[in-house]
């Protein structure tokens, strides 16, 4: 379990900070969290605001833990990961949140049979409502997957998938918050166009999306059935849905997921 061990973060950006906050909510002690980050500003924030141990370099973090979270930008992999090869051993569990970076790539760069779990969290993790998918590398065990799941449950829900499915996860839940932000923005603009004050329209749009998502999550009913229950023959909702069908909102969102998935695959191929 993550609460029983020191956890090291290579990279101290927003997602790492979200995980650290989630761990604190699970009563993980600050003195059992190590972080390295190249930015003096991030170092100061993490040290002063969260009281975690900020170490001078990545190797020091790897030396001080057995659960290592790679939270760097994907383009930094060729620079950062090889330098860890001499320090990371079969005793380490490496959890990667690097978009488009295969577990086999990390295993090769780290020098062999390192246990790697790949994860794709999303930005709602910043408020404890994330959706994360995880998959195991060639040498990770079921216990390693559970350790990673415990880590990400601290910031939301977790699903286990196969590695070939991770690009689709990236296209759906990884990029999906941006699609939903666009929907909220459009709903609010529609309210303003019809006479509502902007702050009221944004509040109503935000709460509507939040409540609708919660209803799907908690009711156990399919979205199509919930949509049917809102519609009355000749009513206002049906009129609005007709406009969405005419503009093919469903098709646009499906295509958004497909294009983001393809882009994730391209990133994994170095394109």
Write the layout of secondary structure elements.
Blueprint: E1 7-10, H1 14-25, E2 33-36, H2 40-50, E3 53-54, H3 58-63, E4 67-70, H4 77-84, E5 93-96, H5 103-110, E6 115-120, E7 130-136, H6 142-153, E8 156-160, H7 166-174, H8 176-193, H9 198-219, H10 223-230, H11 236-246, H12 249-268
In short:
Helix content is 54%, strand content 13%. By secondary structure, it is α/β, with parallel strands linked by helices.
Helix content: 40-55%
Strand content: 5-15%
Number of strands: 8
By secondary-structure content and strand pairing, the structural class works out as: alpha/beta
Structural account:
Helix 7 packs across helix 12 (249-268) and helix 8 (176-193) packs across helix 9. Helix 5 links the parallel strand 5 (93-96) and strand 6. This protein folds into 2 domains: 2-166, Rossmann fold, CATH 3.40.50.720; 176-268, Orthogonal Bundle (ProC C-terminal domain-like fold). The protein is of the alpha/beta class. An 8-stranded mixed sheet has the order 3-2-1-4-5-6-7-8, sandwiched between helices. It is built from 12 helices and 8 strands.
List keywords for this structure.
ProC C-terminal domain-like fold; alpha/beta; 12 helices; Rossmann fold; 54% helix
């Amino acid at each position: 379990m993550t609460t029983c061990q020191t956890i090291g973060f290579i990279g101290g950006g927003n997602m790492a900070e979200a995980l650290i906050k989630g761990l604190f909510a699970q009563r993980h002690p600050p003195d059992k969290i190590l972080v390295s980050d190249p930015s003096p500003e991030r170092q100061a924030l993490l040290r002063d605001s969260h009281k975690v141990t900020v170490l001078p370099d990545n190797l020091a973090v790897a030396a001080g833990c057995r659960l290592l979270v790679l939270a760097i930008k994907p383009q930094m992999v060729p620079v950062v990961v090889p330098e860890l090869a001499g320090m990371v051993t079969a005793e380490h569990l490496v959890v990667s949140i690097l978009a488009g970076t295969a577990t086999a790539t990390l295993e090769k760069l780290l020098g062999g049979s390192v246990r790697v779990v790949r994860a794709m969290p999303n930005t709602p993790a910043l408020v404890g409502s994330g959706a994360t998918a995880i998959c195991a590398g060639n040498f990770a065990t079921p216990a390693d997957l559970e350790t990673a799941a415990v880590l990400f449950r601290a910031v939301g829900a977790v699903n286990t998938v196969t590695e070939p499915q991770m690009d689709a996860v990236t296209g759906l839940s990884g990029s999906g918050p941006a699609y939903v932000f666009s929907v909220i923005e459009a709903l609010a603009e529609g309210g303003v166009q019809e006479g509502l004050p902007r702050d009221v329209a944004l509040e109503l749009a935000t709460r509507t999306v939040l409540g609708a998502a919660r209803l799907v999550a908690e009711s156990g009913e399919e979205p199509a059935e919930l949509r049917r229950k809102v519609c009355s023959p000749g009513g206002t909702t049906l009129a609005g849905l007709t406009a969405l069908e005419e503009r093919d909102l469903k098709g646009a969102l499906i295509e958004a997921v497909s294009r983001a998935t393809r882009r994730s695959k391209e990133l994994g191929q170095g394109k």
